[in-house]
Design a protein that fits this description.
Elements lengths: L1 E5 L7 H9 L6 E6 L6 E8 L3 H11 L3 E2 L2 E2 L1 E4 L17
Antiparallel strand pairs: 1-3, 1-6, 2-3, 4-5
Amino acid sequence: MRIHISNLHSNMLESDLQRLFSSYGEVEDVELVRDKLNNRSHGRAYVKMPVSGQAELAVSGLNGMVLQGKKIAVEQVMYDPVPHSSWSHTRDM
């Protein structure tokens, strides 16, 4: 299950999220969304947990938590769009 986390502090690291979510179970992947030009955090991330029950516990346990002074929002990703990098852009001429 993919989980979306928003309103993260700009100092948050992938390793911080890995530790936080690992307390609920196995974490397969952590992706902190960063600006491609300056590598600064956008304040959101995605965590992938392969065991649905563990992921659901993480969502319910962490949603609304104050982390580094900010109240975070944690929710299951219901729709997983095609990654932007694989979108094809065409233009009619």
